[in-house]
Amino acid sequence: MMGAVPRKPSIAGADTHRPASLASLYSQREDFYRSILDSLAEGVIITDGDDRILYVNARMREISGYSAAELIGRIGYEVLSHEKNWRKMKRRIRERLTGSAENYEIEMLRKDGISTWVRVSAVPYRLDAKVAGSVGTVTCIDRQKTLERENEYLRDELGVTAGTGDLIGPSAGLARIRKQIGMVAPTNANVLITGESGTGKELVARAIHEMSPRRARPLVRVNCAAIPKELFESEFFGHVRGSFTGAIKDRTGRFELANGGTLFLDEVGEIPLELQGKLLRVIQEGTFERVGEDRTRTVDVRLISATNRDLEQESGSGRFRLDLYYRLGVFPITIPPLRERREDIVPLATHFLAMAARKLNIPTPALLKSHSGELERYPWPGNVRELQNVIERATILAAQGPFSLHLGAAPKAAAAPIPTFHTAPPAALSEWKQQEKELLVAALKQARGKIYGANGAAAILGIKPTTLASKLERHGLARESFLNG
Ligand SMILES: Nc1ncnc2c1ncn2[C@@H]1O[C@H](COP(=O)(O)OP(=O)(O)OP(=O)(O)O)[C@@H](O)[C@H]1O
Ligand SMILES: [Mg+2]
Fold first, then answer.
1. What DSSP assignment string belongs to 84-95?
2. CA 364 to chain centre
3. Ligand 1 contacts CB of residue 199 (under 6 A)
């Protein structure tokens, strides 16, 4: 009958009643299948009975580094595996041709000579009822393997420093902080810790992670003050080889390393504006891309940030996105400076004294009433870190003589204005930078070019030596020029 609609659409595609788009799909069947295969996240390789390559999809070309023309017609195991594995591979292929599917992990040899770990699952296919070859899907597990190693390493490394123990001090201020830690730790809320330099922000961040359900996963720290501006994106999100000069191999970003765990963004106020939008997106959607890659990745990360800047004020002057500030600080914790909780000074000093003496293997020197009074009166611009330094230095000196505090050596620290958020930064960024530079120069002069140690410029400024080093670099200051100043 003319015009009868066939009940069963035939793939052969002669049916004119089919919607035009679908019909054209079928007529271009090969392209259609190819595009499906090319869209897969796994590599696909089809070989004949001799393991001669008949087809590779886009991902397979990407993993191996070869073009299709370079692979098609060649013996698969000879191009893509190390010679030491050839016998094993040949046996596998024979077995597969008897009709069994298999899964294995092997080192694949890429075109550039680098090996990469892959997981292969190979299934035989038949033509005219006879096994004619196999279809393999290939998953790159290199990243997984390095990630496992990196995580192990990070956990080990953290195991050492995480033993810093509890927050010491009987003040009401610290009691409130402990309560806040207890409240927020079990949740997934992002925490923003503010406080002057040396008040214990990192200690609090670690305590939150250690008390959270994520404690078995890594706590990954990024010091945002130490990252050159142009490397931020790669540091956070990773990059693929060749995506920029110097990107000589693929790199896993901090977000991926922290997956399932906690990412600690130290000195978060230093993140450049351009990157703040990208950070916001990971927070909101949990997705990002590596630099130089289109593939969107998903992560589950809890963020703890710390800063000694007033981010709300910074956002008022356009240096920090207000929306990001709110996202980071769902749960804000503010640590008061040591001078506002003087009850903590002597207990902290006693603790640091015992620790330093144990480290030096000497009997713990006694802290006299006069010492206590001296410590309690001092303003501690470098907060707990400065106290720790003073006590450690006094303990070292006590190994050869009487125990006495050298707050006189630290007055430099007292005299030097500290660039923390209680001194309002000047309106213009350039002015602020100029002031910072002047401070750095003054501190370096005072320390005669020394960065580290109790008399070093870092201690004078109450910042970490590594932070100082990166600041010097940013300002183009060479400490050598102050060596005899
Ligand atoms: N309440 C506390 N009890 C015991 N140790 C403390 C306490 N607060 C701070 N510390 C110690 O003081 C030192 C400085 O603390 P931390 O590094 O956490 O400060 P921070 O606020 O991150 O400083 P910065 O802003 O310079 O990075 C560390 O050695 C830390 O262990
Ligand atoms: Mg810190």
1. GGHHHHHHHHHH
2. 39
3. yes
Nearest to 48 by CA among 128, 106, 135: 135
Going from the Cα of 249 to the center of ligand 1, the distance in angstroms, rounded, reads: 36
* Residue 8, burial from CB neighbour count under 10 angstroms (0-12, 13-18, 19+): exposed
What average pLDDT does the structure give for the chain? 83
Tens-digit pLDDT profile for residues 328-366: 999 999 999 999 999 999 999 999 999 998 888 888 888
**Residue 109, strand partner residues:** 115
Residue 344 is predicted with a pLDDT of 96
∠ CA 143-149-150, rounded to 5°: 85
3-state secondary structure of 308: coil
Whether 200 is in the pocket of ligand 1, judged by its Cβ within 6 Å, is: yes
Give me the pLDDT at residue 291, please: 94
What is residue 464's predicted lDDT score, i.e. its pLDDT? 81
Q: Report CA Rg, the chain.
A: 31
Contact 23, 13 (CB under 8 A): yes
Find tokens 């004619």 and name the residue: 132
The confidence band for 161, taking pLDDT boundaries of 50, 70 and 90, is very low
| Ligand 1 pocket test target in 197, 385, 392 with most atoms within 8 Å of CB | 385
Distance of alpha carbon 399 from alpha carbon 394, whole angstroms: 9
* DSSP 8-state assignment for residue 231: G
Classify 187 in phi/psi space as left (phi over 0), alpha (psi -120 to 50) or beta.
Answer: beta
Minimum CA distance residue for ligand 1 atom 16: 200
Phi-psi group of 72: left, alpha or beta (phi > 0 → left; psi -120 to 50 → alpha; rest → beta): beta
Span 170-193, average pLDDT: 94
Yes or no: say if 300 and 293 are a contact pair by the CB < 8 Å rule: no
The yes-or-no verdict on residue 229 having pLDDT over 50 is: yes
**Cβ 167 under 6 angstroms from ligand 1:** yes
Ligand 1 centroid distance, CA of 168 (Å):
10
- Give the atom of ligand 1 at the shortest distance from the alpha carbon of 196: 25
- Domains located in the chain, CATH noted: 20-140 (3.30.450.20), 144-334 (3.40.50.300), 341-482 (1.10.8.60)
Residue 420's pLDDT band, with cuts at 50, 70 and 90, is very low
